Fold this protein.
Amino acid sequence: MTDYLPPLLHAERVIGGRRFDFSRRVAVMAIVNRTPDSFHDRGRTFALDRATEAVRAAAEAGADWIDIGGVPFAPGPEVSAAEELDRVLPVVEAAQGLAVVSVDTFRPEVARAVVKAGAGVVNDTSGLRDPEMADVVAGTDASLVITHSLAAPRTAYPGPTYGDVTTEVADFLRQRVQLALDRGVRPEQIIIDPGHDLNKNTLHTLEVTRRLHEVADIGHPLLAAVSNKDFIGETLDLPQRERLSGTLAAVVFCVLRGARIVRVHDVRPAVEAVRMTEAMLGLRPPAYTRHNLP
């Protein structure tokens, strides 16, 4: 299998006021974290001025979406909902009009506030651990990312085990999608994410990535959040700051296996890799053609 375009239930969507046809396009989601302990940024954009600067830079580099986070998934000190909102709301406001605004949160009360403030996507890495998250999104124009994970956010989960990791991830996502539908979320609002590295070791994540088309077959646009993750570092024996090449390889591979949104730290290289992949798949024309033309 050299490429795979998933059969999408609702390929054409309006997200954050912008039109996307996921049968013809891959969206690049930039990561901007207002956290002092994110696994890659390590607080680089924690200060509000640095975060808003990063938002502008991501948009200028070609990001279609900007994902704003106020609390990492990984274990760490408690952050209240009020503090999370203090972190993310000013960045949501700064990102308006520059790209689709997404907020990475597992709290319904935070999701409700950011959607009201203009966020077009709620990125729930807990996979609807709190079903009220579906209630918040139902009846709005926001999209909902449902992610596979086993443990609650900020909770250690050493030694995860699976019988067939890809099948179990896909089954989990089907069940949580049905939960969202049962609570009033419309099918065209749903995005799925297999949760690369979330409660998975490197061998699990490589297996899910290799068989990503089986998850994409669920039929909702699939988000691949692979940027600089430990499965890349452990595979290549590279530290955090030296994983760009591995990240780009993973991004392209995931697109060929059905991903329609990719979540990245290094926006411009990822945009160029994705646009080139789209062109090779016949989804996008070249920006211009001169070579060997009369």
Observations:
- The mean pLDDT is 94.
- The longest strand covers residues 27-33.
- The radius of gyration is 18 Å.
